[in-house]
Write a structure and sequence with these properties.
By secondary structure, the chain is α/β, with parallel strands linked by helices. The protein has nine helices and 15 strands. A hairpin with a 4-residue loop joins strand 9 and strand 10.
Length: 308
Amino acid sequence: MAMKVFRHQAAHCAVYGKYIGHLGIMAEKVERLEQIPYLPISFFKTHEVLSNTKKTQIIFSSSGTTGMVQSRHLVTDLGIYEKSFELAFERFYGYAEETCILALLPSYLERDGSSLIYMVDALISKSKHPDSGYFLYNHDELHEVLLRLRHSGQKTLLIGVTYALLDFTENFAIDFPELIVMETGGMKGKRREMVREELHDILKAGFGVPAIHSEYGMTELLSQAYSKGEGLFECPPWMRIVLRDTNDPLTLLPSHQTGGINVIDLANINSCAFIATQDLGRTMPDGSFEVLGRFDNADIRGCNLLVG
């Protein structure tokens, strides 16, 4: 499937086709997955990355400080994004209909164009639980809701931007071992950056949970990977992580080495499915991966970029 997508996008995604040409690669001679070139993620800041001529339904944009050029992902088929995140959530966490979904995402709610908010909106809508919803800065109310859900034995997911979860634990402590706490990464300049172990230890103590879950996603992708603890992420079947040599970006690395994270996201059928991110990581033989940090010259971004 990846080879079919590559041939389609090499022919129909103008910026990707030109990039391949500048590398001196002839698309028709790419015969194996390992030969597929990855488009640097920065092109989403400077070009319209599209592989069809359909009307754009929505533009997802990255978060960033004032004056920073934002990435723009032009989405021509929202149905593909919805199917991707719904099936991935179901695969890792079961049916949204059976889960109370609480969201502590103030910095995302306060701007337009967040793909994360689009996803969480849809999952909250599918949940149908009366307590599902957003909590901006009303931590008192969130605490009361968590106590009530713990008492009732309701399956509950709390998804939050990292600094907001830390803010909550500084004011409240709750012992709710069954709660799924998922951090989306990002201090948004509001707190000092922390290594994952330190952060997760604080959050585990604050919520009384055995592990902290994480989500790895970004504006330029229409799929997410999830970690159920220890910073080890798993992809849905239509997404794969491949590592590249940090000194030679066209050379791929085997498992257990540290390298730049390349992503194959087949949900990106209408943009570009082969993305070279600015994250550093390590893959495992079973296909899971760790995010270890970022390249030094990379912008601070909203996705999960905690140094491991």
